[in-house]
Every structure is written in C-alpha cells, then in structure tokens.
Amino acid sequence: MQTTATILDGRALARELVAGLTQRAEALRNAGNVPRLVVEMVGEDESSLAYARSLLKLGAKIGIEVNLEQMPSDASEKRVIARLSALSTDRTIHGVLLHQPLPPHLDIERIAQHIPESKDVDATHPANQGRLAYGRDPLFVPATPQAVMLLLEASPAWPLRGRRAVVVGRSVVVGLPVSLLLLAADATVTTCHVETHDLAQYTRAAEVLVVATGVPGLVTAEMVAPGATVIDVGTTMVGGVLKGDVAYEEVARVAGAITPVPGGVGPLTNVALMRNVIAAAETGDAYF
Q1: CB 245 within 8 A of CB 234
Q2: Which of 71, 84, 169, 178 could form a disulfide with 114 if both were Cys (CB 3.0 to 4.6 A apart)?
Q3: Do the domains spanning 32-127 and 143-266 agree at the CATH topology level?
C-alpha cells in the first residue's frame, strides 16, 4: 500500500520564504540598516555549535549579519545578564537569541527576563510569552511553533476555524505555544502529555494533529483519523538516522497530509527565526 497523504514539504516552503526575506534584507541594507542577530551561547557543546553554524550560513544567504558570542561554560548568571542588558541599548543589533539549553548552574527563568523584549526573536522573555498567551499581536512568535503554523497554513486543513486540533506535548518551547497559536486561529484544541490516559482516543479525534514529544514512533497509524493533517515536530537520532515522533510510513497511508522527518518542520525553524529578525529590523526604532 503506497503513501496517500499530501507531503507538506518544509524545504520547498523554506526556499519560498528565504527568497522573500532576501528581498526585504536587501531593502534594509540599501537604506543603511543592516539586519543583525547576536547569538549568545554559554559553553561549547558541539550540537549547539552546529546549530549556530547553520544560523550563520542562513544569515549570510539572506543578508542578515549573524554574530556568535560564546561565554565559557562556567560563566556566572551575573555575567550573562550583564551582556544581555548591554545588547538592549545597541541600536545596531535587531535580534538577540540566548541559545538553550543553558549549563545546569544557570536558571533560564531568572535570565530570560533580561533578554531585550524588542529583540527577543525566539520569544523567550516572559513578557513575550505572555503576549502570546493573550493572543493579541505578540512581538514575535517562537521559531519552531511559527514553523508549525506556516506548514498548517500551506496544508489542506487551513483555515483552522472550528477544527478539532490535538497537540501531543506541553513543553514551553513547542507544545504550549503551539496550543496557544492554534487557539488564536480559532481551532478547538486539546493538549495531551505524558500523563494523558489512552492517548489514542484523543489523537483519533483530531482533524489536525501536532506531535512534539521526542519519543520516536510514538504515534502509529491506528492512532490517526483518516484524512487528518499531521505535523511531526520530533527529531531524535536512532541508529544514526533522524526519526520523528510519528511512524511516518504507516501514518502517511492514513493521513490526508503529513510532514516528513527530516524535511518538514526542521527546515522552516531557522527561517522563521530570521523572519523575526527582519521584522525587528524593519520596526526596530519603534521599540526604543
């Protein structure tokens, strides 16, 4: 039995968005306003460095200057906060990204409030998270949740008004903000998590299913309603192969539309972040 679902191609959508962002960046640069992003990293974790390099590469392609600033892994909370505070007054910097996870001795909840709100391009500051919860024009939408919504906008499920949506995962990084964005799009949302009993009864009722748990192959074909739109946010290396939270081959025979892993949400996440940087550069003076 072959795949019947429409494949939601994140790579193709990313290319379209990059083309538009490149034009906007060029207009800014021609006006003497070079879009700039600072990535603050504490420590030298290799996977974190690989992520930073991907931002540098994408920024160069679009026309955004990306600066990576590394602090030693034992940097104090005071030092991190001081640097973030200094970036808040630098008008040449439009975006500030504090890379996570932080070393264990640093508390993101205390540090996040010192990220400049108007430059908080991954919406980590509590005030920006609060604006998202209110559903009223947040300054920025976090990159991965924004990528999920971009794919849904390109899916047969759009518009979401009145649709039954289920989010599996409640992390503050993905699951919770995705639930809030779905609510803002007038979907009827159920959020499931590790303590949910009989997960399948909820996922089978979903017209739109977003899975973000980090558990490879958690969602199988019998857990998905025929014709549902399935967005897989999971990325876990299994035996050297990147796997999603959805058993792709079997679910693709049931779903109406589905994202692959790799090639779905992932390619759009960094593009969404750069989208926020461009938006900040275009409206930056209004925030000072």
Answers
A1: yes
A2: 84
A3: yes
Angle CA(30)–CA(58)–CA(33) in degrees, nearest 5?
A: 20
Q: Give residue 287's pLDDT band: very low, low, confident or very high (50, 70, 90).
A: very low
* For residues 28-37, average pLDDT: 97
Percent of the chain with pLDDT over 90: 90
Quote the longest CA-to-CA distance of the chain: 59
C-alpha to C-alpha distance for 254 and 57, rounded to whole angstroms: 37
* CATH fit for domain 32-127, picks 3.40.50.150, 3.40.1390.10, 3.40.50.720, 3.40.50.10860: 3.40.50.10860
Specify burial of residue 128 (Cβ count, 10 A radius: 0-12, 13-18, 19+): buried
Name which CATH class applies to 143-266: alpha beta
pLDDT reported for residue 2: 59
**Joined tokens for residue 211:** 């899975």
Residue with tokens 């538009």: 20
Sheet holding 188-192, edge to edge: 6-7, 257-258, 229-232, 208-211, 164-168, 188-192
- CB 106 within 8 Å of CB 77: yes
* Euclidean distance between CA atoms 178 and 159, whole angstroms: 15
| Rounded Cα distance, 260 and 169, in Å | 18
Q: For 230-264, write each residue's pLDDT tens digit.
A: 999 999 999 999 999 999 999 999 999 999 999 99
Length, in residues, of the chain: 288
Report whether pLDDT(157) > 60: yes
DSSP state of 103: P
Task: Tell me how far apart the alpha carbons of residues 55 and 59 are, in angstroms, rounded to a whole number.
Answer: 6
Per-residue pLDDT, averaged over 269-284, amounts to: 95
